[in-house]
Specification:
This protein has helices spanning about 1-20, 30-50, 55-85. The chain is mainly α. The model has no long low-confidence stretch (mean pLDDT about 90).
Amino acid sequence: NIEEKNKSIQKAQAIISELMLTLDKSFPVAENMLVLYEFANSRLIDGNIKNDSALFDEAATIITEFRDTWKQVIQINRQKQSRVISLA
């Protein structure tokens, strides 16, 4: 379904655009993240133009890795907060 595919791609691009806009560029790592977001976005565009699911998979891999990393960061922060609360 071409219409559904385009809707899904546009949603993914909107999410990536929001992530790019909200990056705090005062941290050096933000530049690296921006490059990866731009690459993921270009994979979505190229995948749509070429109708190549492998390009969508590349974008999904990058975004999934970011998601998993953030989950780990959140888990580590929660563990640290729990330790601080239990020491108090």
